[in-house]
Amino acid sequence: MVWTCHTINRACKDDHARFYLDSNGSPSDRVCYNCDRVVSPVDCETVITCGADQQCFTDKYVTDENHVLYNLGCKMNKVCSLMAQLGRRDIEDEDSPLDKRNIIHLCTKCCNAGYCNNKLCTDVTTPVPALRCYACNDLESLSACETLKNCEPDEECFAETWFTDMHEIRHHLGCRRKQICDIISMHNTNTVPHGKRQQGTHLCNGCCNSSFCNIAGCQNITNKHFG
After folding, report:
1. Where in the numbering of this chain does the UPAR/Ly6 domain appear (predicted)?
2. Is 9 a member of any domain?
3. The domain containing residue 113 runs over which residues?
4. SS3 annotation, 148-166
5. Count of the separate structural domains present in the chain
6. Quick one: which of 28, 157, 189, 198 is 20 to 30 A from 107 by CA?
């Protein structure tokens, strides 16, 4: 795997990545929550990277069984523009996964910022947990992770990378106790990677304390330890 980091915009990626970091180390604005038939937008814990011609959206609707549910994902810019101009609750478009014959739209809205669509079309005032991290195991590519996890109050986001006995790079993302993260920070070093992991050779691990930050990988997050 080859890592490239461009100084101007800190666009860091691996061979297959589709996540790009801005100057604050945050993923692209095109990363949106992506769920079907959830009871509340704040319940959504999966994401998707939308196309350059798309925005995040949330659709609130009533099913033929009288259940109020939400769909979240990506919608074409042209559809979002039409909804904003016309004030329509439901505009037929090729992106919609819903059968219009069996549902009633209550609200459909778009937003054009990263992770923005779990706040649309809802009156829920319960705050989203302060720290939400990517959580995936045994990844070949960081970009393959589309699952989020709400960390506990005593945890931070965590990332680990190792080289397997099969000569492959693997990543692990999730939450770690702050006590462990503090130990990692205390032993921070820039020496050549070394050390043996159960599945192969450990390359690096690290913690960071802002939502979604660990998708950058352990090479690029706040408190990292090589070896």
Report:
1. 30-118, 130-215
2. no
3. 34-119
4. EEECCCCEEEEEEEEEECC
5. 2
6. 28
